[in-house]
Amino acid sequence: MNSEKDVLVAGIDSSTQSTKVMVCDARTGRVVRSGRAEHPDTTEVDPAKWWSAFQEATDGLLDGVAAIGVAGQQHGMVTLDDNGDVVRPALLWNDTRSAKAAADLTAELGGPKAWAEAVGSVPVASFTVTKLRWMAEHEPELADRVARVLLPHDWLTWRLTGGDPVTDRGDASGTGYFSPAERSYRPDILTRAFGGRHPELPTVLDPAAAAGHTPDGTLVSAGTGDNMAAALALEIGDGDVVVSLGTSGTVFGVSGTAPADATGTVAGFADATGRFLPLACTLNAARVLTATAGMLNVELAELDRLALAASPGAGGLTLLPYLDGERTPNLPEAAGSLFGLRRTNMTPENLARAAVEGMLCGLAAGLDAVREHGINVRRVLLIGGAAQSESVRAVAPIVFGVPVVVPEPAEHVAIGAARQAAWALAGTPEPPAWQGNTALRLDEPSAEGAEEGARVRQRHAEARRQVHDV
Ligand SMILES: Nc1ncnc2c1ncn2[C@@H]1O[C@H](COP(=O)(O)OP(=O)(O)O)[C@@H](O)[C@H]1O
Ligand SMILES: O=C(CO)[C@@H](O)[C@H](O)COP(=O)(O)O
Known about the structure:
By secondary structure, the protein is of the alpha/beta class. Helix content is 36%, strand content 21%.
C-alpha cells in the first residue's frame, strides 16, 4: 500500500484523434508521467481500437496507480448486443450522416423550443439520439440486435470494471435523451427515436461516485465527457470561458442554471460537478490548420510563420472553413469556401492567415452565443492541440476581443479525468484542491487590434450569409 504521500491517480482522455494518459499525484495534481496513442482518422470506429489505444498509451504507466478516471469524446453511439458485443462500429460526434434524422426528430417532437425545454439542447447530427434514429431507419436488422447503448467513455469504463455499465450526468447530457435539469433519462424520447425499441442505458452516477474496480483492485471513477473533464481540470468560475481547439472547436463556461437555447447554438450540457456547461461546438478546428498546411506542403511550424508574416485580414482573403461540413452553424452538407481572391493577394502567407482567422471566427460566434445565454466572458482560456500554435496565439485575442490565457501544463481533459479519480478516491464533498495551472497570458487586444478583429469577423459573417444564408 502506498503511503498518503505518493498516492497516484491516472486520467484518460479518449478523444477523437488519440488517447492520452496523465498520471498525477492525487493530493497535488502534479503530473508524474504521461502516455499517448493514436486513433483511426474515421468517423466510425470499432471501440476495440479505443481499447488497444488505451492499452498502448498506458503501457507500463499504471503501476502504483490507485484510481483511474476516463473522459471521452462526447455523443458517440456504441451499440451492444445481449452478450455485450459491439453491434456495429461506433458512429462518432463528427459523423454527419444523421443530419436528416436530426431534422426529422426536431420536427416530430414539437420543434426546437420543445427540445431545448425537454433535454436542454436541440439535436444536430452529433447527438446520439439522431444516430439511433439513423440506425433504426437504415440498419433495422442491426438495430433489432441492440440491447444496450453506451457512450465512448461509458464503454471504456465498463471494459475497465467489468461491472454494470455506468455514466455521469455530463456525458449523458449529450445524448439527447437525458434531461440535465431533471437529472433523469427521457426513455420516451429514446424509444420513439429508435423505432419503438427499448435499449438499456447506463446508470447515471454522482460526480464523485466510483464506477467499480479493475480486476487488480484499482478504483475507477464515473468518468465524463472530454469538455466536462477539461472544465474540472481548469476549475473555471465566473468570467472564465474555455475555447478548446481540438478536432472540434468548443466554447464553454459553467453555470448554476440550466440553459435552454431554442436556436440550438448553445447546447445545455451538464458539467462534472453538479452544475451546467453551456457549450457551442464547431466541427472544424485544428484540422483546418493541418489541411491548410498540407495544401501548402509545409509543416505546422511553417504555417505559423506564414500566417504571422501576413497582415490582419489576410490581404482580403476570407476562408469559411467548413471542410467536414459544419455543426455551428448547422450546415452538415457544407464545404469550405475561399473569398476575395485577387492576383495580388494569392500568397501562401495570406492563405495561412485566412485559415487561422476563419477557424477562430467560428469560435468567436460561439463566444457571442454563450455570452447571450448568461455566461460572463472576462477572459478566454485557450486549450486543445491547436492552442500550441504561435499564429493562433497571436490572432485569438484580436478575433475574440478579450484577454486570452493559455493554461499549462496542457492535456486538461486527461488531468480533469485524473482529478475526478482522486475525488472518488478521497470520497470528499468537493474535488481535491490541486495546485492549479500556470497560465501564459497572451497580448491583450489593443484598440487597433480589436477594430481589425471586428473587421475580420464582419467579412466572415458576410461571406457566410452570402453562401449559406445564415
Ligand atoms: N502546434 C500546433 N499547431 C497547430 N495545430 C496543432 C499543433 N499541435 C497540435 N495540433 C493539432 O491539434 C490536434 C489535436 O488536438 P487534440 O486537442 O488532442 O484533439 P482531439 O481532442 O480532438 O483528439 C491535431 O489536429 C494536431 O494537428
Ligand atoms: O461533440 C463535441 C462537443 O459537443 C466534441 O467536443 C467532442 O466531445 C469531441 O471533442 P474533441 O475530440 O474534438 O476534443
